[in-house]
Specification:
Layout (H helix, E strand, L loop, with lengths): L5 E4 L3 E5 L7 E6 L3 E8 L2 E6 L5 E5 L3 E3 L5 E3 L3 E5 L8 E6 L3 E2 L1 E5 L2 E8 L2 E8 L3 E3 L6 H7 L10 E2 L2 E2 L1 H10 L9 H6 L1 E4 L11 E4 L2 E5 L4 E6 L4 E6 H8 L3 E5 L3
Antiparallel strand pairs: 1-4, 1-7, 2-3, 4-5, 5-6, 8-11, 8-15, 9-10, 12-13, 13-14, 16-17, 18-23, 19-20, 19-23, 20-21, 21-22
Helix pairs in contact: 1-2
């Protein structure tokens, strides 16, 4: 049920901050996500992202009245154009898992709503960059598609993301909502013995403050500050740097 406190993110992305400043990033919000406002102070709004319950301060001009959404961006990024023509003016860049309201489709284009200067406007997205919100995509393949993405603390877009955002974004493509930070992801997981047989695709390795994806018994994928990007590397190399860590598998209700 939508309340008057529910707002939609209307920017391509914007940060949530720990305080009313721009010094401590908590996480990043993306277009079409729902932000629940608990109170406002001057140009700031305090509340949480509905998908994962992550709290923080956000600039109020990133928000507008709640808008229903029915599709999601299924590629790393997509453009809203002024007209259903790739040669027309590009209005906005949207990122993986952004939510949009498609009001009509014609040929290869989808007409969508966006907000500019507090007014409802219309633009067009190439339909092959969209999936229904209900469609499930393979989360491991999604994670692999983000290989090479720059590392950015607090980020969760293909422009820059951190270790736990890589996990969260990838699971979201499979319509599975999990916590934002690595410790909370660890808390909802089942811990497995550190055995070779458990180094299998879909399991994760968690260290305090870091998490990544086991691709197979030899390879590991993670967003990390050592390479400053999403990197695939031998598991043995990671263990030499960080220690064994905990092999885990996220549990679902």
């Amino acid at each position: 049920m939508v309340s008057t406190l529910d707002k939609s993110i209307i920017k391509s992305s914007c940060f949530l901050y720990k305080n009313k400043s721009t010094t401590k990033i908590e996480t990043e919000a993306i277009f079409g996500e729902t932000f629940v406002v608990e109170h406002n102070e001057n140009k700031w709004s305090y509340g949480y992202l509905q998908n994962d319950g992550y709290y923080g301060w956000i600039l109020s001009n990133c928000l507008s009245e709640y808008c229903n959404t029915n599709y999601k961006i299924s590629k790393k990024w997509a453009f809203i154009y002024e007209k259903p023509d790739p040669k027309s003016k590009r209005i906005m860049t949207l990122y993986l898992n952004s939510f949009v309201n498609v009001i009509s489709k014609k040929n290869n284009w989808s007409k969508v709503i966006y907000i500019k200067n507090s007014k409802k406007c219309f633009g067009y997205i190439f339909s092959k960059n969209l999936d229904l919100k209900s469609k499930m995509n393979n989360w491991i393949l999604t994670a692999k598609s983000l290989l090479g993405t720059p590392y950015l603390w607090g980020g969760k877009t293909p422009e820059g993301l951190d270790c736990s955002a890589l996990i969260q974004l990838s699971y979201a493509c499979q319509n599975i909502l999990i916590p934002r930070n690595s410790y909370n992801q660890f808390k909802i997981s089942k811990k497995l013995p550190f055995l070779k047989k458990n180094l299998s695709s879909g399991n994760l390795i968690y260290w305090k403050g870091h998490i990544g994806i086991i691709l197979d018994q030899n390879n590991f994928l993670h967003a990390n500050g050592y390479h400053m990007r999403v990197e695939q590397e031998p598991i043995d190399n990671v263990i030499k740097r960080l220690g064994k860590g905990d092999i885990i598998r996220i549990k679902f209700n």
